[in-house]
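Narrative summary of target 7.
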Amino acid sequence: MDKELDSKYYAHDEAKIEELLRSQPWKENPKNFSKCKISALAAMRMLKHTLRGVEKGKARDEGKGLPLEVMGLMVGRPQDDTIVVLDTLPLPCDGFESEWDVNIGDKAMMHMTNISEQMEKKGQKERIVGWYHSHPFEVGVHNNCFMSAIDVNTQSMYQKAITKHWTAVVVDPLRCVAKSKLEMAAFRAYPDDFRPPADQAPDGESISENKGKNWGTYPEKYYQLQTNFFMSSIARSTMELFSKDSLWIRILSNSQIDDEEFAGKVVKRIGKCTNKISTATADPRLYDKGSSSKDRSAGKGDSSKIAHLLCKEQTLGLLRKLLFQGCGCQKKTPVKAIGGNK
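Modeled conformation, tokenized:
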């Protein structure tokens, strides 16, 4: 959760927004918008809406139906290299992706137009900055936050027809429930004439080294934004007050080292930390001419943060295992760190 000043996200600067739209930095850099900040309110409303789609779908066919995909709009503003999402507006459109035909697309566009006109009439400062939809698929090692072929085409169309800063968010509601954390990611389509480096996934990682992750049919046509969440100081204080006496229960009842997805990333994180330390402590003469002592210090700081998080995660995981084994709540097995066999 981002703890920066509220004013950075809630203060509206129309002149700055107009200057951004006028300068059109995305023409020079297709990945100009690289971050997406989502308010706790917007995230909660997206999750609530997508879970309703799950319940509605399962209630069909005498309780044997499949979860339905839903969609809605995001309200906020573009801000430098960031898309700020403050609120959401659910749309009365749901179904399976195979059912998302021209009629549903026209219906969604009609609602978007009506909502935009109403917001303009009311003089609302915030504007529609994109859309969200759900992927309520089976829970696996990786999340289901990706863009299908239909999603990519839809996003590309919206960026061209509505506004250049239009952004898509994909929510994985079943995984949110299973993992007790928000599983959603923001994406944008590349221009038609842009081609990213070969073998590069939308998140910047290598596709061949992460074959288990599903990026859809056209991973080379879109990219993922760095997604973070924030809340107002008042909301944060309230949450801290509520969780003060019970937070330790949640920490001990959820161990990341028991998570298969987490275990697969630990080695990569250790390698990243090691590389940063090696680079930061190397002979200064080996550096490029453009590097500085400040860059090396930043590298040391980043590696320290990674190492600290790894130690914290492993300590809490081992503590949980020992605690549950001691009280007989878990079968006794050899305690191994770094996501070892359980």
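The beta strands are 35-39, 69-79, 82-95, 127-134, 167-171, 184-189, 222-230.
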